[in-house]
Write a structure and sequence with these properties.
The structure is a single chain. This protein has 384 residues and is α+β, with helices and mostly antiparallel strands. It has 2 domains: 162 residues, Jelly Rolls, CATH 2.60.120; 202 residues, Nucleotide cyclase, GGDEF domain (Alpha-Beta Plaits), CATH 3.30.70. Helix content is 42%, strand content 28%. The chain has 10 helices and 17 strands. The strands form 3 sheets. Strands 10, 11, 12, 13, 14, 15, 16 and 17 form an 8-stranded mixed beta sheet that branches. A hairpin with a 2-residue loop joins strand 11 and strand 12. Helix 2 packs across helix 4 and helix 7 runs antiparallel to helix 8. It is elongated.
Length: 384
Amino acid sequence: MMGRKRIGGVPGANMVFSQQIDQQLDGFLRQHCPKPDLIRTALSRDPLCGVTELMADEIICRRGGRVQECWLILSGQVEVRSDEQNVTFRGAGEMVGEQGLLHFLSGKNAARTAEIKARGPVRLFRIDAAFQEGLDGAERVAWILTLASVVNEKLEQATQGRSELRSSATEQELLLRRFTDGDALGLVKIAASGQTPTIQRRRAIVYFGDIANFSVWSADKDPTEVAKHLRALAKIQIDGIREAGGQVDKLMGDGAMGYWFIDTPERERLEPPAVVKCVTSIASHTSRYFDDHRLDLGMRIGLHAGDVSFGDFGADNRIAVTVLGATVNTAARYEQAKSPDLGRIRLSPVVRDLSVRAGVDPATFRGPSKVQVKHGVDLDVFCI
């Protein structure tokens, strides 16, 4: 690879000086220097200042290195990397390396805090650290103010960047919350960062809701009409579960799944009454919706409680945080149970006992009824 090329010093009468740096230097000084002509004259008389050319990926300075100069970018782009995470790009008309010179002016023995390298062919105007030692009083003040202006502009850019980053993070958070919430949101964030969250063993009340007779009713209906009602009925369930402190796991056609963790004494005391109130409200709101829209439909809700496996069960490119296990399968069986003796809300003896222990009036529940479900399994079913 071709190394850096020094084109040379820039005495004031040198026409090469004018052709190579006039446009960028004049623009830079007008933007940052309180007395552009003063500093331009000082630069033109310093033999240590000159134009340097570099090829792609050449290192301009290394982190921790000694401060010897700063650079005004005449053409091309450089990469400024303070660490693996913090990378900035600077282009024509911008200065790099100026903070080190400011440290020198303040009497500090500074070292480079970042690595700077060429992103492609780059032409730089090099300003040697010795330049500022030959300045008179007025020139020195103007040069300090110039460097300070550059640093201040970069601080403002960084502040704006952090603000935009926070705004972007907030928007991402709100977007994620439209798909998941609660404990699941934390696991999604871990998975999204490239880590594999640990599968947790937890205890939960699991909810399954389904619209009875929906397949038959929707068979000859316009898809737009079907979608409108599905969205409204899903909203009733989603809003109800979330307002009751539960977590929505997924929507499945005309059905929904949710859960409440009860793996602490406090949760076991608070969640069962909230679940009972939630499902009663969902059943009432969906029944009213069916009546208002003259829909020949019904609502079935099944509840069961027990141990579940909670975690990300997706693949490398697919995050799927959910709860799995026999408790989940059994909760689905309670929702699917068919018997003329059952009401809209069906729950297991476990959920009924948890609710009564948590203060729900035992008269709230009727049953149990023994019902045979899939695979010839008999369930004791309480209803509300």
